[in-house]
Amino acid sequence: MSAIRLLDPFRPSVVSLLFALALAPLGIAQNTPQQSPPPQQPGQQQPDQSSPDSGGPGGENGPIALPKKKDKPEEAPPPAPAQPKFKNPEGAGDYSLRVEVPEVTVDVGVLLEKTGQFVPGLKPSNFKVYEDGVEQKVTGFKRVEAPITALMLCEFSSSFNYFNYYFLYDMRNAAWAFAQQLRPQDYVALMTFDMKTQIWLDFTQDKRQLLNAINSLVIPGFSEKNLFDALYEAEDRLSRIEGRKYIILIASGRDTFSKITLDKIYQKVKSTPDITIFAISTGGALRAMTEGGPGFSQQLRDIDYLQADNEMKTFAKMTGGMWFNPRFQGEMPDIFADINAAIRSKYELVYHPSNRKQDGSYRKLRIELVDDEGKPLRMQDQKHKALKYQIITRDGYKARQEVE
Q1: Model confidence pTM above 0.70
Q2: Which element (helix H / strand E) includes 265?
Q3: Which residues contact 191 (CB under 8 A, 6 or more apart)?
Q4: Of the candidate ranges 168-177, 292-301, 329-338, the one whose mean pLDDT is the lowest
Q5: The CATH number fitting domain 146-344, selected from 3.40.630.30, 3.30.450.40, 3.40.50.2300, 3.40.50.410
C-alpha cells in the first residue's frame, strides 16, 4: 500500500513535463522577431520591376529593354514657289497674249539619176530651203525610214476595140509589181475607177488580200475614164488620215467624162498636205507601135496621150513624187524598186517660215544642196566621175487660213 502512495504524487508532474516539451517549438516560433528590409539609402533609386513597353528578355537585374525604332516623321513637301505678281497700270484690265508660230515640215528625197539609189550621209548644213525665193533657217533635221500608207488608184475601164487589152494588161502588171515590194508593216488599199470609183480593198497589211483583189480585175464595166473625179475623191479620203500618205496612180492619164475640171484637180492636189503621188502611165507598148501613124485620127490620138502624160507628170511633180512611162513589162520591178526607195528613205526638214501670215496663200518651195563652203554640192563615184542626182520634194504648200 505504501508503494502506491509514493508514486501518485509524481504523475501530474510527468504529464506537465510532457505537455511543456510539446509546446516548446511553438513558443520559440512565436518569440522569433521578423526581419525588416534594410533601410533605403538616400539618393538610391529602387529598380523598376515592371516590364518596359518595348519588351525584351529578362535578366538578373530585371527585364532587358530593347528600344523601338522611332518612325521618322514624314517630311512635308516644299512650298510651291510664289507666283510672280504683276501690277497692271491703272485703268488697264487683264489681258492674255497668245502667239502661234507656224511650222513647216518638208520631206526631201535625194536619189542618183542613173541608179535611183538614195543618197545617205547628208547633213543639215547641206540643205538650203527657199520659200518664195527667201532663204529659211532649218530648225529640225532627221532621216526618216518608216512603214508606208498607200492607196493604189487604178484605171479599170473597157473599150470597144482590142487596144483596151494593152492598158488593162499593163495596169495589172504594175499593180502586181507594187504589191511584191510591200513589207509586213505597210498599209495599202485598192480603188479603181472607170465612170465611177469602186473600193476593192480597204487598208490592210495582208498582202494576200491585195493580190486576190488585183486578180479580180478581169472584166471592166464602163469605157469612160473619169480620172479627175477619182483622184479628187482619193485625195479627199486620204486627207482624213493622219501622217504621210501615198497614191500609186496607175492609169493612161486620159479623162473623158469627169465633172471636176483640170484646174480644180490641180488646186486640190496642191492644197492637200502630206500626200505624195507616184504616177505610172499604161499603154506604153501600144503607143510605141502605133505612134506617128498615118491619118488625122492617129495624130489626134497621139496629141491626146501627150497631154495625158503631161497631166500625170504634173500630179507627181506637184507632190514631190515621180512619174514613169514604161513600155515593157520587164521595167516594172526596177520602177517600183525606185518608188520603194524614194518612199521609205527621206530627209525631213523643219523650219519656221519668215512669212508668218496665215492668209491661205500658196508658198513656193525650192531645195538646194550645198557643200561646207556654200557651193553647189558635187558627188563623185569611186573612180572620181561626177554623179548626177535629183532632189524630190513638193514644189510648195498652202498656208493655213486664219479664222477670224
Answers
A1: no
A2: helix 262-271
A3: 151, 152, 153, 154, 197, 198, 199, 200, 230, 234
A4: 292-301
A5: 3.40.50.410
